[in-house]
Amino acid sequence: MTLPYITAEQLASTLSHLDATRAIQEALRRGLDPAAGPARVTVPLRNGEFLLMPSETSGFAGVKVLSVAPGNPARGLKRIQGVYVLLDSETLAPLALLDGAALTSLRTPAVSAAAADALAAETIEHLVVFGSGPQALGHVAAMRAIRAIERVTLVARDPERAEVAARTVNARVGTTADVASAQLVVCATTARTPLFDSGLVRDDACLIAVGSHEADARELDSAIMARSLVVVEDRATALREAGEVAMPVEEGVLNPETLVSLRGLMADEHTVDFSRPRVFTSTGMPWEDLVIAAEVYRRS
Fold first, then answer.
1. How far is Cα 95 from Cα 9, in angstroms, rounded to an integer?
2. Distances (CA, A) of 202 to 96, 255, 285, 300
3. How many Å apart are CA 141 and CA 62, to the nearest integer?
4. CB within 8 A of 135, min separation 6: which ones?
5. Considering 41, 122, 182, 254, which has the largest number of Cβ atoms within 10 A of its Cβ?
């Protein structure tokens, strides 16, 4: 039997950013527990790393195999490549293969939008996105799916690449100073150190950081984490893999007991304090890929 292969184009045409966001929200509201799933396995390679991400939920199981090659962009190749194998959870028979990089590019913004839907102000005049790659552009689309946004600014290290990216999403290119006027800030970069001085951040801002899955890398500084309501996919995972969380906890400026889980947020177990910044930091978890892959399969 030849397994169906769901391409990047088919994936994008089957599930919109809003559909993907709602799928994540509904899975959590129906009781999916991120803490119960297996952790991601990272395998170092000479030119990068493998990421193996297995998960199981009602009706489906699956595993994403990604390669991360930091040197690829200089070669004109994608930094992240891979494949997702979707299986029936009863028989464990393979059902389909999906483009792993495209799946990641859809599910990460969907998880961010699911959190931002609860954490961001109802009116967003200014969205600032750090980055110019697929994740940055995907987050622009996902945030526009949940909010009416008046203007979008991209901030990136490479001005020429930023200009090209900005034209594709009807945005302008700006600088870190633009954070001062943003109600919503998304960090979707490969940076290992904070991208801006958090003293610029408004008290009513929502910040999303998705660029790192390592405890010694972060896009936001400790000051903003100490100042904010902090939401994570899962507390144990964040302490292990999220530099935004692990470093300020180690410095003693962030109490891990105050971390709010995304599941608890979706279940309305927490009152969101809109008088101070709200931060959602994500490392990417296997259950997220499975939720989106299963939804795409159902609709295909």
1. 19
2. 45, 22, 29, 43
3. 26
4. 105, 108, 109, 188, 210, 211
5. 182
Work out whether strand 278-281 and strand 206-209 pair parallel, antiparallel, or are unpaired.
parallel
Going by pLDDT thresholds of 50, 70 and 90, the confidence category of residue 1 is low
* Parallel, antiparallel or unpaired: strands 80-88 and 94-99: antiparallel
Backbone angles phi, psi at 129, to 5 degrees: -120, 125
Domains of the chain, with CATH numbers? Answer: 5-104+287-299 (3.30.1780.10), 109-284 (3.40.50.720)
Sheet holding 94-99, edge to edge: 5-6, 94-99, 80-88, 60-68, 48-57, 41-45
Task: Let me know: does 244 contact 281? Beta carbons within 8 Å.
Answer: yes
Under a CB-based contact definition with an 8 Å cutoff, are residues 116 and 280 in contact?
yes
> DSSP 3-state assignment of 7?
coil
Closest C-alpha among 225, 263, 261 to residue 243: 225
Contacts of 119 (CB under 8 A, 6+ apart): 206, 229, 231, 265, 272, 278, 280
Give the predicted TM-score (pTM) of the model: 0.94
User: pLDDT tens digits, residue range 28-51?
Assistant: 999 999 999 898 899 999 999 999
Question: CB of 154 within 8 A of CB of 162?
Answer: yes
